[in-house]
Design brief:
The protein is an alpha+beta fold. It folds into 2 domains: 6-131, predicted glycosyltransferase like domains (Thrombin, subunit H, Beta Barrel), CATH 2.40.10.220; 144-285. Helix content is 53%, strand content 17%. The protein has helices spanning 6-9, 102-112, 116-124, 144-180, 185-221, 227-244, 247-257, 262-285; strands at 18-22, 32-38, 41-46, 57-64, 69-83, 91-99. It is globular. This is PilZ domain-containing protein.
């Protein structure tokens, strides 16, 4: 499931031509006009705010009127109903997509990402969880190459997780070392605070690195089998890699394609990044 806080729900939204109706209204006989959309939510115009209730979960059918593509969203939570800026007595029903299958994610991605600039703006505020989806009902790729790619990403996720564990063990050793010193309590407290602050910042990065590789593996394994959809899914994956894989991670992924193990790839990528920073620093001094 995709879980998001209020701040994320209020991230960049885009105006797109689309219609929204009840899940049962297959023919869009009485649709609502779409208002705005982003990767994890959408808003549409209603005549009365009594039609929906905040926190209500609904199933919707969405139609992209530019392409006529229709897709369903079973897990949509109503977040708010507010007056339209048009002063026409209508209301905007703002919704959050709480769960989605891979096919629904792809269709919704196509509705939002109509051009390169939109992708750049939207991805700047996107979160890892926005690219997650429920496996139940999501198509698995029939191409062995996709699973080979997914295996590389998964191996990197495992190696990254092992590295994270080593960092946690190092942190514990350092804390125990500080506690055993004969320094005054105030100095111990200052050293402990410094250690905790450094580890707290590092922990967030470590966890995101592991989740990024694991999510990439999941995206690759669920690559659609229809060629047109495959191409669109590859664009989605490219957007994901650009946003959520650090330069070091992308380099490590490239090294994996050259036959290196995940551990070797991560190590060499780190060394490459350190070397690049050293060279850049040397040039700046000259």
């Amino acid at each position: 499931m995709i879980q998001m806080d209020l701040e994320q729900r209020q991230s960049h939204r885009f105006f797109r031509p689309f219609l929204v109706t009840d899940h049962e209204d297959v023919d869009f006989s009485d649709p609502f006009e779409g208002f705005d959309v982003n990767l994890t939510g959408l808003g549409f115009v209603v005549d009365s705010k009594d039609l929906f209730l905040p926190s209500q979960e609904v199933s919707l059918r969405v139609k992209n009127t530019e392409t006529d593509e229709v897709y369903c969203l079973e897990g949509v939570q109503v977040i708010h109903l507010q007056s339209s800026d048009m002063d026409d007595g209508k209301f905007i029903c703002g919704c959050h997509i709480s769960k989605v299958t891979s096919n629904q994610l792809l269709a919704h991605h196509r509705l939002v990402m109509t051009d390169a600039q939109t992708a750049v703006v939207s991805m700047q505020t996107s979160k890892l969880s926005e690219f997650n989806f429920v496996e139940d009902g999501s198509e698995l790729s029939k191409d062995e190459a996709d699973f080979q790619e997914a295996s590389l990403a998964l191996n990197l996720a495992v190696s990254q997780s092992e590295r994270n564990q080593h960092e946690i063990e190092r942190f514990i050793v350092d804390v125990e070392s500080i506690m055993r010193t004969g320094a005054k309590a105030e100095l111990k407290l200052a050293d402990l605070q410094k250690e905790f602050d450094a580890f707290k910042g590092h922990l967030g990065t470590m966890n995101e690195s592991t989740i990024a590789f694991a999510t990439l593996a999941k995206l690759l394994a669920h690559t659609p089998n229809i060629e047109q959809h495959r191409l669109a899914w590859k664009t989605l994956i490219s957007d994901f890699e650009t946003r959520f894989l650090t330069e070091a991670q992308q380099i490590a992924y490239d090294f994996m394609h050259q036959g290196l193990s995940a551990e070797e790839a991560i190590k060499l990528a780190d060394e490459y990044m350190l070397s690049s920073k050293a060279n850049s620093s040397s040039k700046d001094q000259h």
